[in-house]
Amino acid sequence: MPAPDLAAAERARQRQSRLTKPPGSLGVLEEVAVKLAALQGTPLPRSRPASALLFASDHAVTRHGVSPYPPAVTGAMVENFLRGGAASSVLCRHLGVPLRVVDVGVMRPLSPPAVEGVSFRRDPVADEPGGDLRVEDAMSEATFQRALAAGAAEVDALPDEVRLVVLGEMGIGNTTVAAAVAALLLGREAEEVVGRGTGVDEAGLARKVEVVRDAVRRLRGASPEHAVRSAGGRDIAALMGAAGRAIERRKAVLVDGFIVSVAMLALERMAPGAREWMLFAHRSAEAGHRHVLESLGARPLLELGLRLGEGSGALTALPLVDAACALHAGMATFEEAGVPDKGRG
Ligand SMILES: Cc1cc2ncn([C@H]3O[C@H](COP(=O)(O)O)[C@@H](O)[C@H]3O)c2cc1C
Ligand SMILES: O=C(O)c1cccnc1
């Protein structure tokens, strides 16, 4: 992973100290601007153009009744994204962010997009089999590598000037998948990382815990790569590949909720330093998210009780990142505005 540019960060920090406000009075917004300066290697960083990538996959683990919704929702929601009716479709339209939906494992064939600003691709990795993480590896080594590559290819296809990549996922069963990966990476018990996802009842929650417990029993002590390959999903792998390539190309990554954060934790474990390139949008209501964030040393921008996924939390936080950059670039300095600074007459 490339190193952030500390000289650019220092110049941004100095600029912050000369803007017409008491030092530190813009709080985290100042930190966001300084962080982006380090990543982009410039004292005047930008949040735009931003681009959203959503990876969608089904998961064999849904056969254990771990979600209140049927697996068919995954494909149906992809069509909803493409027609402009999903939460993230609305947010992308509202914010002027192009939305790219990538099928890396949806069982049902999907119809192409009909809305401006939205595009779709089915990656060939979608035709490969996915295993039930409770009893078998979710991906073969080759499928895992191809899913990583599918994510990386999407970032390579983005225009060079894109500064910020927004990541999201769609896959019924994904809070179970993410919990299994998190339990393995964090060495935590199933109960600590399993949550209600889209809203399972007590019996559903107990089934999720059992499934994750079985996966942990099967894979305890696995390397990060083995953990994510055997307990993850093609969408999680594609998220890792996309973030890894974004970072190589010095683009910042705006991280969504629990599921995307688990993918980012796996990436950080496989490529230490990756987390320096991530902005964490929000703390999801999903129970395990706080452990994942804590392990990444991440303080998210928002805590709104969101528990939707599909990049919706990241998109909700984007205007804050826009504001941080606009303030940093656009405010006058004390000198420019003729405003007396503290300690000067
Ligand atoms: C209509 C609908 C839209 C969604 N958009 C994102 N998710 C979210 O819910 C799923 C994870 O929850 P679980 O593990 O409980 O299945 C993922 O697809 C995630 O993106 C949705 C779920 C539903 C039902
Ligand atoms: O935080 C998330 O990513 C999340 C939580 C619940 C359901 N889907 C996604």
What does this protein look like?
The protein is of the alpha/beta class. The protein has a single domain (50-319), classed as 3-Layer(aba) Sandwich (Rossmann fold), CATH 3.40.50.10210. The protein is 48% helix and 10% strand. The protein has 14 helices and 6 strands. It has helices spanning 6-18, 27-40, 72-83, 87-95, 141-156, 174-186, 190-193, 202-219, 224-231, 234-248, 258-270, 289-295, 312-330, 334-337, and strands spanning 50-57, 99-105, 118-122, 164-170, 252-255, 278-280. Strands 3-2-1-4-5-6 form a 6-stranded parallel beta sheet, with helices on both faces. Helix 11 (258-270) links the parallel strand 5 (252-255) and strand 6 (278-280). The radius of gyration is 20 Å and the shape is globular. The model has no long low-confidence stretch (mean pLDDT 97). Alpha-ribazole-5'-phosphate is lined by residues 67, 69, 73, 77, 169-176, 197-198, 308-310.
Quaternary organization: single chain
Order of helices and strands: HHEHHEEHEHHHHHEHEHHH
Small molecules bound in the structure, each named once: alpha-ribazole-5'-phosphate, nicotinic acid
Radius of gyration from the alpha-carbon trace, in angstroms: 20 Å
CATH topology: Rossmann fold
What is the count of DSSP helices, taking H or I runs of 4+ residues?
Answer: 14
CATH architecture: 3-Layer(aba) Sandwich
Terminal CA distance reads: 48 Å
CATH superfamily: Nicotinate-nucleotide-dimethylbenzimidazole phosphoribosyltransferase (CobT), large domain
> Could you say which overall geometry the principal axes of the C-alpha atoms support?
globular
> Overall mean pLDDT score?
97
Total strands: the figure is: 6
Largest sheet: 6 strands, parallel
Can you tell me the residue ranges where pLDDT is under 50 for at least 5 consecutive residues?
Answer: none
What's the level 1 CATH class? Alpha Beta
Total domains: 1
